[in-house]
Amino acid sequence: MDRDLVETKLESLRRCVERIAGKTPSSVDQLVRDTDVQDIIALNLQRAVQISVDVAAHLIAETEATPPSTMAENFEVLQKLQIIDPVLAQRLAKAVGFRNIAVHSYQAINWNIVYQICRHHLEDFRQFAKAVDHHLRGKST
Predict the structure, then answer these.
(1) How many domains does the structure of the chain reveal?
(2) DSSP state, residue 69
(3) What are the angstrom distances between the C-alpha of 55 and each of 60, 90, 113, 134?
């Protein structure tokens, strides 16, 4: 496993999360009115999800597990491998749904939902990074 690559990706994930946290306005109304902040938050949320999927895929590739067929399934596999817990796996799978909407414009972005993600679910990405760190430390001993 390219441990340096995974650690670099985790650092990028942390930067994305901190960028989102630093730019999240105090109300959803402010977010709805500020397209620059919308762009910063949406882009960094997309990146955070993509980085998380990339890290998951990298960890899965090092196992005998069946490769997932969707981005969201990466987190289900990590849960089965006991790298992340079921609740976190479910939340990260939902984050893939947001990423798909934002990237592919399946529907208009609901800024109320984005605001809730910013206020209440950035910790999911932090927990993911901690779980991967813990997994990597366990493999080095």
Answers:
(1) 1
(2) S
(3) 9, 16, 25, 14
The catalytic position among 91, 99, 120, 121 is 99
Domain around 126? 3-140
CA angle 24, 128, 5 (to 5 degrees): 100
Out of 19, 91, 104, 120, the active site residue is 104
Mean pLDDT of 11-18: 98
Predicted confidence band of residue 122 (pLDDT cuts 50, 70, 90): very high
- In the residue annotation, 104 being an active-site residue is answered as yes
Query: What pTM, to 2 d.p., does this model score?
Result: 0.91
The amino acid sitting at 86 is P
120 in catalytic set: no
Instruction: Name the one residue in this structure whose structure tokens are 């749904």.
Output: 97
Asked whether 115 and 28 are in contact (CB, 8 A), the reply is yes
Place of tokens 């592919």: 104
Dihedral angle sign, alpha carbons of residues 108, 109, 113, 115:
negative
pLDDT band at 12 (very low <50, low <70, confident <90, very high): very high
